Amino acid sequence: MIPVKDLNPSRSFPLVNASIVLVCTLVWLYEWSLTKVVVQTPEGPKTAFELFIRQWGLVPAELLERPYTLITHMFLHGSWGHFIGNMWFLWVFGDNVEDRLGKVRYLIFYLLSGIGAALTQTVVSLLFGGANVPMVGASGAISGVLAAYMKLFPGARVLALVPVFFFLYFVEVPAVVFITLWFTVQIINGIYSLPFLGKGGIAWYAHIGGFLTGYYLVDFFKKR
Fold first, then answer.
1. Average pLDDT score over the chain
2. Which of 52, 68, 73, 105 has the highest CB neighbour count under 10 A?
3. CA torsion, points 82, 84, 89, 92, in degrees to nearest 10?
4. How far apart are CA 15 and CA 37, in angstroms?
5. Cβ pair 90, 18 in contact under 8 A
């Protein structure tokens, strides 16, 4: 299912959420500009994009050398699809969570969810052969936002695009149903991905870790 929008208007402009989207957009456009630049390295020619990802993305085996990547990796993306998908989910669900938590609390919550996601993926990667695969993307932090949304607005309606065979249908579903199904998919894919962590791909365990972090943290951050 693809969320089109949530039927849950927020009471204030989501300044922090919009700022995160803007920063990720500017960083992605810069990354994209590097894809055609080739740099000679001791290992052979590489694109400046690859080197940028290696420098600012989170590489589990190098986390202690570059702890700042716990934050920087959240603002990088690997492709247009990766970037657009993440920003769309954040735009649909983030405004209401920011509205409920408050702007400063929401920013801290977002960053902590991303850190929890990164640490989860790091541990799994170190154990199952993905220690040298860079991780980038906002999806871990956004998973925490989804968990918060589910907990704060379980009955809110989400208009989703649902594929049925060769057709697409618009369906309204409760947020708790939409996000529970989404999280179930992450767990299933995470289990199947374990033998292939060394080859890269989607960081499913970042999604799982970010979701669980957000689910448990949101109670401490919401306004009383």
1. 92
2. 73
3. 180
4. 34
5. no
